[in-house]
């Protein structure tokens, strides 16, 4: 297990490094000059040249990258032009909000998708199956942000049950989390269904039934458990959609997460914050994936041994 | 086949938008703003789906928006597919360091949520239509590369490929005659399904204000326009969203049907 994890950690660090190169390259490739943006419009050419020298922009690119990495390792990702404080701080303040939203959405989607998927598999080709799969298909076709607006229309504007936007209390997270959960639900439902269908006719289930175990025990303790492994892998892959979806949904509901920070930074041309945002989110994603891999390896010993 | 039929209808409607649309999609008329569906304006024109916050006819904008959405979706998939197939072929056929580099690139790009990558690009390079298609294409090639590489690796090991190589076949001939035929089916299935995903992606970016420039009517922009007025004028956001959902659903049905025809083994 330790060797497997160690190898995965090294890979993860490699990916984070790759992301830093891409982000660094993108900012340097931009046609507009970050320096002139960071200083006021009345800055003299001499002041601009001084700032350029101070921030290392007059150095060759490899040197600039080395400076960038050195600062990043000390937690310095530049100063936010808009917030006038360290960019990393701005992003780290918003990250827990996004993780909270994502985490809750993830749990809601599992709570709904697993039972629906199991029911669709067990009652294959029945009304349950068609309705479940139909909803999954529709769910994949509906744009998440539009679903959010429709839910606002229904639950806030018409029924006055929930607030439209912001984050001033626990009830404010319900609609955003449900909307984000709807992004994951279709794919998880389909996977649970197809995984269960594969497993339902296996011999060990026949044995369990022959032993006289109630069907519910057969399904939950035997069938569902063996399905967990492929489910966990796919969930790892869906993390990207979850994080990406969170960015859009935060905009619909005014949820103050990293997505909102990024969008505001674009209008304000706040490059340090944009850079920090991408780096932090990607790093979070990489390490979340690492946690998923560790879970996967713990669930299935064959993975630890063969890797 | 339902999907194919519906899709054909949508494409025809989109192409015929200038003939079908009762009003111009760009005509602003502030005194006529936020009128409900089935409202008749003072000059006698029936606004079937109402008007938006700037007085523009919602139905006409939906019809014209169909063209942009379909066009961007299809073009982005073409770009993504081309890049992905080429890189997948290179990775699978050449192997070695090139394959390692390409696969590491895939892993790295997968770590950055697509929306954030798009945000960064727009912030740095500005907002324009070719740029948007490029961004969508550059983030969409990953699936193709993986699939194509997989197929290449399995075909490469086949005896007939080894025989062809022994007989002196050039790499290009080997790729074209032996590898590509095995690659088309999964690529086409992936491509048709991705059109729907690209349409949703483009509309999400436009909704966020970093997609299609505001002068062009698109479904994402219409939904964004209606967000602020959702309590006053629910139709402004609702109808374009419905149109987009139905179109994407049609694309998925078509893709599923195509996959069942071409290769039922790929069924989920």
Structural class designation of chain B: mainly alpha
Q: Counting H and I runs of at least 4 residues, what is the number of helices of chain B?
A: 11
Shape of chain B: elongated
What fraction, in percent, of the residue positions of chain B are helical? Answer: over 70%
Task: State mean pLDDT of chain A (0 to 100 scale).
Answer: 83
Main beta-sheet strand count, sense and barrel state of chain A: none
**Span from first to last CA of chain A?**
10 Å
C-alpha-based Rg of chain B, rounded: 22 Å
Biggest interface, which chains?
A-B, 56 and 46 residues
Please state the average pLDDT score of chain B. Answer: 82
Number of strands of chain B: 2
Strand content range of chain B: under 5%
What's the helix and strand layout?
The complex is a heterodimer of chains A (307) and B (268).
Chain A: H1 2-29, H2 34-38, H3 45-54, H4 61-73, H5 87-122, H6 127-141, H7 144-158, H8 174-200, H9 203-210, H10 215-253, H11 258-267, H12 271-299, H13 301-306
Chain B: H1 2-15, H2 17-20, E1 39-40, E2 46-47, H3 58-94, H4 96-111, H5 114-125, H6 129-140, H7 142-156, H8 159-166, H9 171-208, H10 219-227, H11 235-262
Antiparallel strand pairs in B: 1-2
Helix pairs in contact in B: 1-3, 1-11, 3-4, 3-6, 3-7, 3-9, 3-11, 5-6, 7-9, 9-10, 9-11, 10-11
What would a concise description of this structure say?
The complex is a heterodimer of chains A (307) and B (268). Chain A is mainly α. Chain A has helices spanning 2-29, 34-38, 45-54, 61-73, 87-122, 127-141, 144-158, 174-200, 203-210, 215-253, 258-267, 271-299, 301-306.
């Amino acid at each position: 297990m330790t060797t497997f994890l160690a190898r995965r950690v090294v890979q993860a660090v490699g990916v984070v490094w790759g992301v830093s190169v891409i982000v660094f390259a993108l900012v340097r490739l931009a046609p507009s000059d970050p320096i002139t943006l960071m200083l006021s419009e009345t800055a003299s050419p001499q002041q601009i040249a001084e700032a350029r020298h101070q921030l290392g922009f007059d150095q060759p690119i490899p040197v600039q990258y080395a400076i960038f990495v050195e600062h990043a390792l000390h937690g310095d990702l530049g100063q936010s032009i808009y917030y006038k404080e360290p960019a990393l701080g701005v992003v780290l303040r918003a990250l827990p909000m996004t993780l909270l939203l994502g985490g809750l959405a993830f749990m809601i989607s599992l709570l709904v998708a697993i039972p629906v998927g199991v029911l669709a598999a067990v009652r294959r080709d029945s009304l349950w199956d068609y309705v479940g799969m139909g909803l999954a298909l529709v769910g994949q076709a509906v744009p998440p942000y539009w679903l959010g607006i429709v839910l606002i229309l229904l639950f806030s504007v018409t029924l006055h049950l929930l607030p439209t936007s912001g984050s001033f209390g626990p009830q404010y997270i319900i609609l955003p989390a449900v909307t984000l959960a709807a992004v994951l639900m279709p794919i998880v439902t389909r996977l649970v269904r197809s995984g269960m269908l594969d497993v339902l006719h296996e011999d060990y289930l026949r044995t369990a039934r022959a032993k006289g175990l109630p069907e519910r025990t057969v399904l939950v303790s035997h069938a569902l458990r063996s399905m967990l492994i492929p489910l966990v892998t796919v969930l790892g892959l869906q993390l990207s959609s979850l994080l990406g979806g969170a960015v859009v949904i935060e905009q619909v509901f005014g949820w103050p997460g990293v997505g909102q920070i990024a969008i505001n930074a674009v209008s304000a041309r706040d490059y340090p914050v944009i850079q920090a945002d991408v780096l932090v989110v990607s790093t979070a994603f990489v390490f979340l994936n690492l946690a998923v891999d560790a879970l996967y390896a713990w669930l299935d010993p064959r993975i630890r041994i063969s890797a | 086949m339902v999907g194919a039929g519906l899709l054909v209808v949508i494409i025809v409607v989109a192409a015929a938008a200038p003939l079908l649309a009762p009003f111009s999609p760009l005509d602003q008329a502030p005194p006529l703003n936020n009128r409900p569906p089935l409202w008749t304006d003072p000059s006698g024109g029936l606004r079937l789906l109402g008007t938006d916050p700037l007085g523009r006819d919602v139905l006409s904008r939906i019809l014209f928006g169909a063209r942009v959405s379909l066009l961007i979706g299809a073009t982005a998939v073409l770009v993504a597919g081309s890049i992905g197939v080429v890189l997948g072929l290179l990775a699978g056929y050449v192997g070695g360091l090139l394959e390692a580099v390409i696969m590491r690139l895939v892993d790295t790009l997968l770590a950055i949520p697509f929306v954030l990558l798009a945000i960064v690009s727009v912030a740095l390079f500005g907002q324009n239509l070719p740029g948007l298609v490029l961004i969508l294409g550059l983030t969409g090639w990953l699936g193709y590369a993986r699939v194509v590489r997989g197929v290449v690796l399995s075909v490469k090991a086949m005896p007939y490929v080894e025989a062809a190589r022994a007989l002196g076949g050039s790499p290009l001939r080997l790729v074209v005659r032996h590898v590509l035929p095995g690659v088309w089916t999964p690529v086409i299935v992936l491509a048709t399904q991705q059109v729907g995903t690209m349409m949703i992606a483009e509309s999400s970016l436009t909704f966020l204000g970093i997609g299609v420039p505001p002068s062009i009517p698109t479904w994402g922009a219409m939904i964004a326009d209606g967000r602020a007025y959702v309590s006053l004028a629910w139709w402004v956001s609702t109808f374009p969203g419905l149109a987009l959902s139905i179109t994407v659903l049609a694309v998925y049905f078509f893709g599923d049907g195509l996959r069942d025809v071409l290769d039922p083994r790929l069924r989920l």
